[in-house]
Queue: 3 jobs
Job 1
Amino acid sequence: MTSKVYVALRVKASPERAFQAFVDEIGAWWRPSPLFQTTPRPGVLSFEPGEGGRLIETRAGGKMFQIGRIVAWEPPSRLVFSWRQANFPPDLHTEVEVGFEAVDGETRVSIEHRGFDQVPAGAARHGFPDQVLLMRLADFWRAQIAAVGDQIG
């Protein structure tokens, strides 16, 4: 099985602006999904910038959940972070790599999410066979990139 998805869309911005919007404005553009919720009651996402920083979700009452850690921070071209949902086993993480590439006055934002072959049947799979799960995951990330483009507007 292929354990990764890859999606890419163009946004009308420079790589610097697209990177900045992705990281600094994630709380404004992020679209929660019932299939790939990080926690049962989604909150607001935010990055702590720099390698070793965290991607966290903060709920209304202030409770925080650490989704992952930044493993590569290369503005404005690349960002890699670990990803886990609350229903993953404690030691399980997948990995998300985000690329920002200038193309004809726009930026191609690409996302590769890898490692879903490690995710057990009861965690974030919703009973889907592997190919359907990965198609749904690709749709989820495609919608997130589109939301970044809308945020840049």
Job 2
Amino acid sequence: MKLVVVSAGLSTPSSTRLLADRLTEAVRESVPGGVEVRVVELRDLAVDVAHHLVTGFPPAALREALEAVVAADGLIAVTPVFSASYSGLFKSFFDLVEPGALAGKPVLLGATGGTARHSLVLDHAMRPLFSYLRAVVAPTAVYAASEDWGGEEGLGARVGRAGAELAGLMGEGAVRGASEPEMPEVVPFEEQLAALRVG
């Protein structure tokens, strides 16, 4: 199985990448037979993302990263929090994913920030974004504030639970690229009324 990890951390070293690595390891431990992992560092693709947004043509490295995300059996997406939301680079990257390409794809969400007050970004910004993309989001998302890195107990338990959930979703083989459900034929309202009168 293929697992792609998208990290939007901007610094080196990055707490965002550190969280992404911890989540990756938790998934690895929960998948029998292991997983093939590819990490996409958005920091390295920032200029390519900007060029693609302006020109509509992705440079080779960005195109390969987008193709890897679409082809993955599971996705881990981690961003730092800026102004109470995901980073602009994180959003710009996922804006470039073709509509419907993440439909049914299992996704594990993570975010990092300086204070626990920003933890709501997971449910108020990230979950809606991936719901719009029609991905299957793991129930447990992981937020790591600065103080969490010192108290391993709480963070470690959340990371382990989240990793096991994503591994379970990947094992279920969630349907990727599912088409829209076929809509039943619409009967005009006048015909429906006429049928009621006859009865």
Job 3
Amino acid sequence: MQYGVCNLSIIPLRSEATDVSELVSQVLYGEIFKVIEQRKQWSKIRLEFDAYEGWIDIKQYLEISKEDYTHIKHQDLKLSTDLVEFIQAKNNALYPIVLGSSLNCLSILGHSFDGDFTKTLNSKSNIINTAFLYLNVPYLWGGKTPFGIDCSGFTQMVYKLNGFRIMRDASQQATQGEALSFIEESEPGDLAFFDNSEGVIVHVGIIMDNNYIIHAHGKVRIDMLDHSGIYNVDTKMHTHKLRVIKKIV
């Protein structure tokens, strides 16, 4: 078994071992993973944080030892909290990193960082404040950065920045936590899930006060939530059908 760390700002995680394959997620600076399969130019990895799998270019990561992987795995996450910051290499070269990048591997990579970060478990009340950092970020399938994010990448990163671990896809996140019977039982920071005509969970958002919801749909936006689903405040139409509300924390 081989182990690796992302030593670049953002790298694509793809469904197949080719540059034209679907973007299923992204790997941010400092994230560690196991290499579970290799081909000539590609490695299939399993991320430590959420066990998500996909293919990355072998030129876009650094191999680390099992000992380093295990050591980092058992540390509390130390995450950058600015939309964009820089880490500095030993040769003084600067590398951009984005909100939510992991800083636990700085010594292994020989990098330094003097920006803002968090490494503590925050209260649930801070989830909405963190969500506002992504407001108006454009929607990107497979994205999880301030330059493009999908609905479940948004909820995962907001929770991650507050010290809570949830899975990557909306359908996976819907299996976590405690189901609530009514919107009235929810509180800011709870997750609302939405399904399609086949009953498949396809969307997720974060519940706010006063029947509002913040979610990634075209962009990260704020809309109304009622018992039918999401009511788009611009088009005056319902866009997503409510399936279940979950209290994760």
